[in-house]
Amino acid sequence: MLNRLVKKTLSISAIVIAIIVLGGFAYIEIGSNRATPITDFSAPFVFGQFRVPEDNPLTDEAVELGRRLFYDVRLSGNNEVSCATCHRQQLAFTDGRQTAIGVSGKALALNSMSLANLMWGPRHFFWNGRVTSLEEQALVPIQHADEMDQSLAELVDELKADSQYKSLFSVAYGRITNENIAKALASFQRTLISSDSKYDKYLRGEATLTEQENLGRKLFVAHPDVKASLRGGNCIDCHSQFLTSGFNTLYDGFSNNGLDSEEDLLPGLEEVTQIRAHRGLFKVPTLRNIALTAPYMHDGRFATLEQVLDHYNEGIKMSSTLSPLIAEADNSTKGVVTQASLNLTEHEKTAIIAFLHTLTDRQFIAEEKFSNPFD
Amino acid sequence: MITTHRFTFYTVLVSMSLVLTSCSSEQDSNEESKAIVLLRGLPTLDTNHSIAIVALDPESENFGEILQEFEFADYAMPLHHLYYSPTGRLYATGLDPQCSLAEVDLARDASGAPVINGVECIDTEGQQVGEDIIWHNVNGTDYMIVSFMAGTGIDQSDGGSIGIFDPQSNAVLRIIEARKSTVGEGDPYIMYPHGLSAYGDRMVVTSTIHADLATGVGNSVTIIDLNTFTPIQTITIEDAQPVGFPSSPVEVLFLRPSIVAGIEPTVFVNTMFGFETWKIPYDESNKSFGEPEIIYSGVDEGTGVPLEFYGNDTELFISHAIPGVVKRYQLSSLPELVSSGPDLEAGLGAHHMIFYATESGRQVIAIQNNLLNLGNADDNDPTDIDFIAKVNDHSITVHDLETGEKLATVNFKERYRKGIANVESLFGSGFVHHH
Fold it and tell me: Which of A18, A52, A242 is closest, CB to CB, to B112?
C-alpha cells in the first residue's frame, strides 16, 4: 500500500516537474516572438475568404518591419533600388513604365504589377504564376541580377549591422534570416488593401454612381447574350465582381486574352505547368486603381484604357489557347462572326472606362501606413 | 537524455497542435458550407434572439457549431428573414416593431474569418413586420422593395404595405398602401402582404395572414404596376379550404426567362392554408394575367402548408411544412411541375434552404425546419400557437442532392435552447431564385 502511495506520489511529481520544465521550454520558444497580433485591420466581407500562413500571422511588428524593408534600398546590390522603386504608392504600387528597370538598367521583360488586395485572387504570383506565396515571391526580385541583384547573405549581414533592424526583427520574428525577411515583406504586402474607391463606397451604399458609370458597371458584370438582348463588356468572366481580380481556383486566374497570334505567344503559364494549353496565359491582374497603373497588359503594350477597350472590341488575335469566353463574346446581332470582337459602341466603351475610373482609391495611395517610413 | 525526452514530448505537443490547427484550417477553407442563421430565443428557455454564423459541412467535425453569434437582448421579437442585395449587402426583415428592417454589418478579421459587426435598424417610416425583400430595376432605376405584413399599424384589421426603398441609402422613397377598407368596392387592394416577385414592370404580392396571426387571413394576390407603383388587379387564389381558413397565399415566384430560358412568363403561388400550388399565366404582349389554376394539391398528395420556392441551375424546390418535405422539379419543364426525384425528407416545418458543396465536393441542400418558430405549449411558452407550434422541428437537416440521403441534422432547440427562424448562405454559394 505504502509502496503504491510512493509510486503514485513520484508519478505525480514527475508529471508536475515535466509540466514546469516543458512550460518553461515553451515559454522560451514562444517568448522570443513578442509580436502583437495586428490591431488595425479590417477587410471587406465581400472580398471573400483569405488565408494568412499559420507560420506568419499578421502582427503589428511584422508589418512595420516589412514596410521598412519594402522601402529600403539596401535590399539591392548597389543600394539604389528598393521594392518601392518599381512599386510606387502614388501609382498604386506600379512604376508607370512599360516594363520595369532595375539595377542593371536594362528594361525587364514584363510590366510591374500593382500590389493591392494580394490576399485575394489567384494564389499564384508573378505574371506566369511561378510562385504560390508572397513569402516565396519576396526574395525573387532581390536576388534577380537585373532587378535588385543582392546576395541574401550580404543583405542579412547588412541588416544585422543595423541596430534598429536588430530590434525590429527581434520582436517580430526573433532572428534576422532570409526566411524572416521574406515573411516581413509578405506581411506588409498583405496589408495593402484597397477598399475605399468610389466603387467600394457604392457597394457599401455610401455613394451613387453616375448614369455613365452605372452603365459601365452593368456592362462590366455582363457576358453578352444577344438572344436575351443583354449587352455586355465581358469583363466579369475574368475579373471578379467585387475584387476585380482574377479568380482563385487553381489556374482560373490566368487567361490568354487575345494579345498575340499563335506564332507570337509567349510561354506564360506554360513555363510553370509545362502544359501546352497554358501557352500564352498570364495572370489576370486586379483592376483596382487601374486608371493609375498604365501602361497595361503583361508587357505594358497599351498606354491607355482606350487602347485596352479597343483591343477587346476589335483587336482580339485568334490562337489555340485564346480564352473561349473572349472568343465567343459578341454583342453584334448581325449573325455572321468573322473575328472575335465585343462590338461595343463608343458610348459603351466610354461607359466602361468611366466605371474603371471608379476603382481609383485615393485613400489607398495616400495612406500613411503604406508610405515610405524613411521620408 | 532528459533534454531529449523533453524535446521529444514538446515536439509531440507541437505536432498535435499543428495537426489540430491544420484540421481547423481545412474546415475553415470551405466557406461555402457556412451559413448565417437567425435564431429565436425561447422565453421559457431564457435565451435571446440572435444572428449567428454556423458551420454546416456534414463532413466536418464542427458541423452545427456556432462560429460567431450576435445577440439582441432588447428585442421582444426576432429578426425574420435574411436577404443579400446584388451589391453584397446583407439585410434582414424583422418582426419587432423596433426593427422591422435592418442591415447587417459584415466584415472579416485578420484571419479572414467572417464577423458580424452589428445590425443597424432602418427607418421604415412606421411600416411594421417586415417579410420579403426583392431588388428590382424598373425603367433604369434600381429599387429595394419590402413587404410589411402589418403595414403602418398592427392594430389595423386590413393593414399591410409595400415599402419602396433607395437601395443605396436605404431611404424610403414611397409607401404603397391600399387597404381594402379604403379602396372602392372591387378595386385592387393590398392586405397582409408577404410574398413578392417581379418581372419587368409588373410585381405580384400575396395576401397571407394578419401579423397577429389571429384576426385575419388573405386569399388573393395583387398585381402592382411598377411604373406608377399602384395596385392594378387583385386575383383571388382559392379553392377548397382544407383547414377551414382562407387559402393564405404565401410565397410567389414570377417565372421568367432569366430563370428558365425561353419560358413564357408565369406566376407560381403557394397557398399556406389551401395546401396548393397555383399557376397564373402572364401574357407579356398585353401585360395581362390569365385564370389561375391549381397545379399541385396538397390534399390529394398528403402534404400541407407549402411555403418557399428555391432553385439551382437544374431544379426547382418547393418546401412543404407538413409533413416536412421538399419536393423537387425539373427546371427545364417549368411551368409544368415534372418531378426530378424523390422528396427530401426534412423535418416538420420544412421551410428555407441553401445549396452548397461539402469539403469533398458533394453537392448538398440544407433545409431549415420551422414554420414560424414559435414556442411550444408543452414548455408553457407564451408565444405558443397550437397549430404552428406543432410544425416546428427546430432543426437544419442536410441532404445529398444526388441521392436525397439525409446526411446530418442539427437541432437548435436541443443544442442551443433556441429556435431557428431562417438560414441563408454565408456568401457566394450559388444562384438561388426564391422570391
Answer: A52
Q: Which of A181, A173, A167, A48 is nearest to A117 (CA)?
A: A48
pLDDT at B385: 55
Nearest CA in chain A to B141: A211
Which residues of chain B have a CB within 8 Å of the CB of A43?
107-108, 112
Q: Domain limits at B196? A: 134-302
Please judge whether A205 and B88 are an interchain contact, meaning their C-beta atoms are less than 8 angstroms apart. no
Peptide bond into B292 cis (omega under 30): no
We report the CATH number of the domain holding residue B162 as 2.130.10.10
Task: Evaluate the omega torsion of the peptide bond into residue B323 and state whether it is cis, within 30 degrees of 0.
Answer: yes
Query: How near does any CA of chain B get to the CA of A68, in Å?
Result: 21
Low-confidence ranges of chain B (pLDDT < 70): 1-29, 373-389, 427-435
Q: Which residues of A touch B106 (CB under 8 A)?
A: 45
Q: Where in chain A is the domain with CATH 1.10.760.10?
A: 45-194, 198-359
User: Is B108's CB within 8 Å of A45's CB?
Assistant: yes
Taking the C-alpha atoms of residue A217 and residue A286, their distance in angstroms, rounded to an integer, is 16
Number of H helices, E strands in chain A: 14, 3
Q: Are A50 and B108 an interchain contact pair (Cβ–Cβ within 8 Å)?
A: yes
Quick one: CA dihedral B403, B82, B324, B317, positive or negative? negative
Instruction: For residue B137, give the chain A residue with the closest CA.
Output: A218
Please judge whether A21 and B6 are an interchain contact, meaning their C-beta atoms are less than 8 angstroms apart. Answer: yes
Q: What is the CATH number of domain A198-359?
A: 1.10.760.10
pLDDT of residue B9: 27
The Cα A275–Cα A272 span in angstroms is 8
Q: Which residue of A has its CA nearest to B115?
A: A45
Fold of A45-194: Cytochrome Bc1 Complex; Chain D, domain 2 (1.10.760)
Across chain A, mean pLDDT equals: 90
Test B427 with A48 for CB contact under 8 angstroms.
yes
Give the integer Cα–Cα distance in Å for B148 and B132. Answer: 8
pLDDT digit string, tens, across residues A198-251: 999 999 999 999 999 999 999 999 988 887 778 999 999 999 999 999 998 889
